Model the fold of this input.
Amino acid sequence: MQKLVLGLIVVLGMWAMTAVAQDSAPPQSSDSSGMAKPVLPSTDNAKSEAKATPLPTTDTPASRVSKLTLPDGYVIGVGDGLDINVWKEGELSKQVAVRPDGMITLPLVGEIKAIGLTPNQLQDQLTTSLQKVLSDPLVTVSVIAINSLSYNVMGNVQKPGYYPLVHPVTVLDAIALSGGFRDFAKVKKIYVLRAAASGKQQKLYFNYKDVIRGRNMAQNIWLEPRDTLVIP
Done:
C-alpha cells in the first residue's frame, strides 16, 4: 500500500514539472496552415544602419527663378535691385542695385552697364566677361526690386509712397491702391506731375467728382514710370 502511494506521488510530481516547463516556453507564431514559424532575431541594429546611410548627392545646379513677375521685355533701370548668381562661385554671387549712372560692380568683372538691358542680355554679358577668368561660368540674373518702373503717390491719401508699375494703372486705380482719400482732400484739384520730353514738368489735372460721375473720362489717364500723383 505504501509503495502504491509513493508511486502515485512521483507520477504527479513529474506531471506538474512538465506543465510548468510548457507554460514558461516562448510562444510561437503560426501561419494559416497551423505550422509554427521561427522567431526572427531583432532588426534594431539593421534599422539604425539604414537610417545612418546618407542620401546620394547630386551635382545638378539648383534652378533660380525671379522673385518678381516681370512684363515681357522688361528693361533694367536705375535703382532696380538685381540678384546675380554664379553657380558654385559664392564670392561672385551678389545682390546689387543699379546706380544712377546705370552701372553695377561685381568681383572679377568690375563695372558693367546694366541700364537698358533685359535680365537675359545682362546675363549673357556677365557670362562673356567671366569666361576670361572662369571655365564655363553659369550665370543667372533675377530682378528682385523694381524701382525704375514705379510711380509716386503723395498728399492726402491713406498710404502715400512709391508703387511698382508692372501692369497698367490709371489715376483712379492709383487712388484705390493707395487706400483712398484722407479727410479734407481736395478731390477736384488732383493732378499728375509728369516729365515732358523736353525735361520740363507738366501738370495733368484730374477731377475725381467728374470721373466717378462719368464725365470727362479722358482725365483718367494711364500712369507712366516716374509719374507723381498729387492729392492736395
Observations:
- Residues 29-66 have pLDDT under 50 and may be disordered.
- Helices lie at 2-24, 44-52, 119-130, 171-177, 208-212.
